[in-house]
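pls read this protein:
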Amino acid sequence: MSPPDWPALRALIDTGQARLVAAAVEHLDERQRRGLAAAVRAYARPLANDFEVDWQLRRRRIAALRVAGAGCLSGADTVARWLTRQDLRTWDEQRSTTAVLRVLQARQVPWLPELTRRLAARLGPNEWDDHRWRLVAELVTSTGLQGIELPTSDGFVLGWARSRRPDGRLADTLATDPFLDALAPHLLEGDGVGRLLAWSTSTWMPPEASWPLALATLAASGRLERERLLDRCLGRLLQGGSAAELRGFLLLHEALDPTLEEVAARTRDYIRLLADSPSRVALAAQRVLRRLDNAGRLEPDRLLEVSRAVLFRPEKHLVRSQLSWLDAVARRQPERAGEVLAVVAVAFAQEAAELQARALSLVLRHAGHAGEAARAELLEAAAALPVDLSQRVATALGSQLPAPQPAPSPALVASPPRELPPPIATPAELAEELAAFLEGTPTVDPVALERLLAALVALAHRDRAALADGLGPVLARYRIQSWLPSDQVPTITFLNEYQQLSWAVLAAVTPPARRILLRGFMRAVWGASERRWRGSWPVAPGPRLALLYRLHEIAIWLDRQPSAPPLLVATPSSVTGHLDPGELVARLERAATEGWEPWEQDLQQALLRLPRTPDPVATARARQLPTPAGQRLFAWLRDGGMADPQVTRVIRTVRGRPRWSSDASRLVTDEVVAVFATVAPPSNPARPRTVPASLPAAARRLLPRRPPLAALLCELPEPERWQGWHLGGWQRCWPALLPSHRDVVAAHLQPWLANLPAGARGDGQVLPILAETDGPVGPGLTLALAYGLGARDQVDRAAAVDALLVLAGRHQLEGPALGSELGALTALGQVQVGRVVPALRDAARSGATAEVWAIVAAAIPGLVPSAGQRPPRGLPDLLALGADVAGTLSGCPTIPALAAITRRGGSSHLVTQSRRLQQLLV
């Protein structure tokens, strides 16, 4: 084939013919290669970002371009960078690997060994690099006669391990592998090896393909050094890592099955694993050390030292096993019982009542063998126990504690309201705040959003050119201009809040000539979306629609009005979203004086943000306003605002979260019972309004007749409809849309909050914001708190505790209703008591002792099992929490439902805690 010029080579690349490109460039001389190098580099720039081309053709072009670069570029570093470019990666590089190897071998350049080393150093732990590993391995084989050493980088070693495909047993394949001796010493060093070890033992893999089993077999036959393999395995476990990574090394440790001699030689390592490692690793170390202790080869002092660390750990199964081990030691060596009990006393500080009870039982069992020093230490440690339990310890040790005195309940003080930041005054400040807002995703700050919108409108009214100059760098950095097409209106028909915010910003800063494209874009997207909503497509949740409508209105008016109004009348005057009536009257007085009318959605939102408390002074001032907006405000204040919608608790059957089937072959979705809250509209909702006549005709088409915000926010007949929708954190803005009716907002949030106990994360962060607003605490907010307290994620549970404390500090918490809801949700399988108890304990420690008692007392009757039924997990811990709280209060009434538990008899943890609680009640 004759040497190609660039047009001919480009034609081959355009059609994605990698093999023809290889044939065209493999016989070029260096001068011809240098002549084509610049054009090859230039071709890559537009291709990397050209996503309008068919994806299969784009993948073939990238493959052909990689071959062209390997044949035309010069120098080891240059070619290595080219072959590992991130923008020239595809999920399937196999089509180009053979051609690249052919081209490189044909060049016969002296820098090929250096290229091999550089490519090996750039290999990563991802399976994406497997084809690149094959390229490096082939280069190693072909250049081996030129003195290159076998690479031992983490990526190369991991790629070698992944590429081993045994025909029979993996151990037999590895035993004859030419790379084994050089790479085996480095096998357990790289990231990703643990996942490979674990993956090879999966249920769908044949047993003979197991890497842990193969390595143990090779070590047993002497092919690998067993001592080094075991040391490196323990070293990786000590190093830590993700659960998936550590699982592979645990499986290898299990396959090696260390002997007592090997364990004794590494006792220090196992003690470190037991004290500080993740629970699964610590449990394995605990079993190994206990086996060593049973053989009499573990020093007692070392056992007691590590036991102190273990008994401080939060994992119940680890602490239970350690207490059982110490109990066996005390039975075996009564003369050391005092030392053992001093260590056992560490468990008195555990939060779990079950662990406290086990430690207490062990102390009572062996107290007779404790010396004076140990007795004093036990009495001191018993101070961490509740009063009734510490008295039992003192009695067993032949001592007596002072009579307990109920401690006064700590007073809960309502936290002062947060201050609203000052308004944004300059374009530079707005640019900084907009960048911070975009960086904060997915956590949306509702206060920041309102400040951004208020500043955008005010600064657009003042000087649009200065605003455009100030926001230019932010628009370029976050590619906000990408929401505006360059030459045509694309077929995008989805809506989201970031998109609408971007359009509002663009409407304020885009030149009029470019604004025509933005206008057509908005018309196309909103028209398609609203046509779907009128059909079978489900409309978005009411609060989300209200927010989208508000952002859309701002974009339309900023686009169509050369001189926008100087302010938004709905900008809140507090962080809760409330708007002071006097402030709203002042804004409308300014509008009347300057001759402009507030926007419709903006005015509706302003009315919904007024507080529940009447303001006669503001009402009198509003009566004097001559504008239509002023008269609407007067009527709103005169009538007392919007009445409370009716929120009702309902039980529905919905589709649960997808899960893998028992054989891990497919995803299945079960039907589950969920509790939601529905909302019926109030008796005096706001009447629908038409689009203001002052709006230009073109803008009236873009801003069609829409339902009033009150109708969107105050009606929710089918909450389960939104189960599974993703909101992107924007639900944090919902409480500020209706700050005087938090129960309604809580009802709208139920479809997302109901997923918190099942494993959803982040949605509970709205609960403290919701609690800070105003309005009745009804079924919606009570149910929201119950889901938050039962969340799987600890951060969401902490947010629920914060919300509970806010309500308790304002004396607005309905403790009995919340307790009854927790009992009902537990009975339905929606909430686990074991997660609720730590959250309630944190609330009690923060001062909400009486409120927590009211919750616990109301929850217990719904959790007591009937005859023959198993009690819910965590019920003993709830009873223990009730006893701890009741011990600090006085006059707590008895709970008749506890009698059914006590009648069971026996000494189970449940019966013990029930008796203990009964003894503390009046």
